[in-house]
Fold these 4 entries.
Entry 1:
Amino acid sequence: MKKTLALLLLLTVVRLDAATSNGNDFALDYSEAKTDRDRKILAEDAQGRPHFFRYLKITDLVEVEEGGKKIVKIAATEPSSLYSVRFSISSPVSLKLLLEDPATGIGDALAVTGNLNSVDSSAQTIELDKTIIRHKDRSERKPGKELLAEVSPDAVVYSFTEGPRPISVKARDRDLLEKRDGIMAQGGKEAWFKFLEEELAKRAAGGKQP
């Protein structure tokens, strides 16, 4: 029960401005979830939101035409979870990136952003919609989580919406989240809201780190 409550708090991710989430983190967290309930919470939170994935190693690449429009359908392995991420590319800019010398093929890796459409634990697949290619990537498997902060310190990684106002925490301030459990245990939601608001205000003003 405590673990589920912690998961619910962790997944209070901001939806304002369609903030992009870390796809590698999502895939790893989902693959390691212990119960169907935890997987359901993760999937429902991520549904329809844009996620940024790195190190996707292509296992299948097929060119098709639909309605006279060229589309490239791709399946690629996400390294931290070993799930297959599946998506279609139709944007002219993304298609051009695929064809840039050397042309992208099976075994190459991509970094992409796409809206999470569905995830299936039994098939170990993640389906994305409205996917665009960010850049060609290296197929390097890193231990643990891939941080979106490697690419953008402004990426929103957490938000708290149970206070007087929503508070968003960006990747550069992620260390604040390490204090969440202690503060929540001692003072509850009000104390957690106050801590986040005060510390983020200090940082925005160039004050000391906690």
Note: Residues 21-142 form a domain with the OB fold (Dihydrolipoamide Acetyltransferase, E2P) fold (CATH 2.40.50.140).
Entry 2:
Amino acid sequence: MTYRTVEVWNKQRNFWHGRGAGMTLMPGHLAEEQRKILREVALAYRRVMRAPQEPAVTRAEISRRDQKRESEALAAAAAEYRRLNPSASDDPREVSGEVNQMIAAAINADPRWFWHGPDA
């Protein structure tokens, strides 16, 4: 198996595979199918983050609420990623890394759309 064959296989298996730490994922360089997955994953995260918040008074309550919401948003994004990409890894850490890269890419590509755009 040549390097090129392995590279193509990895892209077919999981198109986020092989991205090293410090590499920025750019939506413009992705295939249409990959951009659709990135968009849906980012929207799943954003929907949870933009949901109405439960009231909190103390700093500790606010911190716990925000941590809980962040965890729920990442879980929703990971579930969406697994739904759209059946070949996604079974390793939760690998999926988490891929999902975080996608969310960061969506934010970096257009922060205004990500945080203030319409909920699609």
Note: Residues 1-14, 16-22 have pLDDT under 50 and may be disordered.
Entry 3:
Amino acid sequence: MNISDFIMGNSYFENLDFEEVERRFDLSVIEELPDNHFNRAIAKLLNMYLLGNPYISFRVVETLNDLEKFGVYETWIRLLRERDDMENSLLNLLHLKRPVSLNCFVNGFIS
């Protein structure tokens, strides 16, 4: 996929200067992505996540089949260069996936 196609229409990426994009994302991964609807959706979901809507992004991904979910998460992991971005995305995913009983424990409902 062309880098400008990946960035176009995704406000988070559009608001970064190119040096910031290069620093935070692995551009070779973008260039390796086939330019198709699924990979454009991956870019949109990552854009939504980075704009501060992780819950919505992860909920949309969770509606996909297992192979598609794997493709989204693998692409995000390969794209993110910065440790903080990677940690935040993985922690958000873990929080989304934790069992309800653990949610109660974490929220102090179980002593």
Note: The chain is about 75% helix and 0% strand.
Entry 4:
Amino acid sequence: MAGAFGVRNLINLDLFTDSYRVTGRALVGAGGIHAELGNPNSKYLELQDTYISRIHEPGDIVASYNLAAFRKDNINFIVLQDRREGIPVGTQHGRSVFTRGRPITTFLTVPSFEITGEILHEGKITPRDILVQSLGSFQPIFAAKASASIHPDISYSGDLILVHKDRIGIFALDHNKT
């Protein structure tokens, strides 16, 4: 699809709130879903072809809609199977700011979930510095897995999980594991 600002694509994603998982498709531009989440002109993210299930019953769809909107500040995290749909990964002249740096093993929590994976960071390796220096309201976690805290057998994996920084309860790093 072409719009006033260039090509836009529909991407598949899983969005998680405190109690629900929503599977759907979002219309994004060249900056991926990370840019849509950072758009200051809207507090909402719209999804198409949505299927809603409870976190503790992921196989039971409680509702489905052609179009739904979610307040960005109520999103805990988003799971993507391809990082290129979430963030700009680079150009022919260099790597994106999101994919530069050394890999650091991380563990973090948000309401109802524990998330493990890797962050890529240049500079001082402390949780505070990473959260302050990374762009936007969502922290990218690569090669990530989210497990339900109360039901750890329920988990979701993706090439990229974007975690809402304001929803993080625990953020731990192990820069010795890579």
Note: The chain has one domain: 2-174.
